[in-house]
Write a structure and sequence with these properties.
Blueprint (H helix, E strand, L loop, with lengths): L1 H12 L3 H15 L6 H8 L3 H4 L6 H14 L10 H18 L3 H5 L7 H16 L4 H26 L5 H11 L6 H10 L9 H21 L2
Helix pairs in contact: 2-3, 2-5, 6-8, 6-9, 6-12, 8-9, 9-12, 10-11
Length: 225
């Protein structure tokens, strides 16, 4: 009995808030947020459930903590580079962080979970837009276009990747039932999905550059007035 008690006490003594949150991230990555319960977290850490409550008052605290970890991995739009490069790098970094942890998309859209890391990220992007010469109204619209693209593209890619294992078979079956003489461009589009991934055709960066190109035109037009 003494040796069993020692085995339980040892991992408990090494427990830290970071270790708790990293374990929570792993659970969410593996099974989604529904898999993240206080009991499952305690089991993964090898401790009694009450030990986890020393570091978090409950599941909501854990959710805030793991979202903070994801946001920490996002590069802020620093003032060192030009506005476009700074925002582009920041947006790509945010997209990649959310791709690694797609469960964070829902959390990050919650107004109740706008915490210090998210505030710094938002402030930096808004600052780069305003300092580039966009008006307050243009900055508001530009920020929401960028934010929608970051989060929306991630959700779109995750949705498709969930069924990607049988995508080629599904696409082939779909083409067999499609009247290609009537829908030639849809057939062409479906075949594009069946091609191997091409690094030069990154859909997120393609869409991001369209947004940035449009913003540059707005900025240039406004400056020439």
């Amino acid at each position: 009995m003494a040796s069993q008690g020692k085995e339980l006490a040892e991992p408990r003594s090494r427990l830290t808030l970071e270790r708790v949150l990293r374990a929570a991230v792993e659970l969410a990555d593996e099974g989604g947020l529904e898999a993240l319960t206080m009991r499952a977290l305690a089991d993964k850490l090898g401790v009694a459930a009450m030990s986890v409550y020393y570091y978090a008052s409950g599941r909501d605290d854990i959710l805030n903590g793991i979202l903070d970890l994801v946001v920490t991995d996002m590069e802020t739009a620093s003032g060192g580079a030009g506005w476009r490069a700074a925002i582009r790098n920041s947006a790509i970094s945010a997209h990649e962080a959310l791709e690694r942890h797609p469960w964070a998309c829902g959390l990050i859209m919650s107004p109740a979970r706008i915490r210090s890391g998210r505030i710094r990220f938002m402030e930096a992007m808004l600052a780069r837009l305003r300092e580039a010469g966009f008006s307050a109204e243009q900055t508001d619209l530009a920020y929401h276009a960028l934010d929608s693209h970051i989060i929306g593209s991630t959700l779109w890619e995750v949705g498709y990747s969930d069924g990607s294992e049988g995508l080629e078979d599904y696409a082939s079956a779909f083409l067999r039932t499609l009247r290609e003489d009537e829908y030639p461009y849809l057939a062409e589009h479906v075949r594009q999905h069946m091609l191997p991934p091409r690094p030069s055709a990154n859909s997120f960066e393609f869409g991001l550059d369209l947004i940035l190109d449009g913003l540059e035109r707005i900025r240039t037009t406004a400056a020439g007035r």
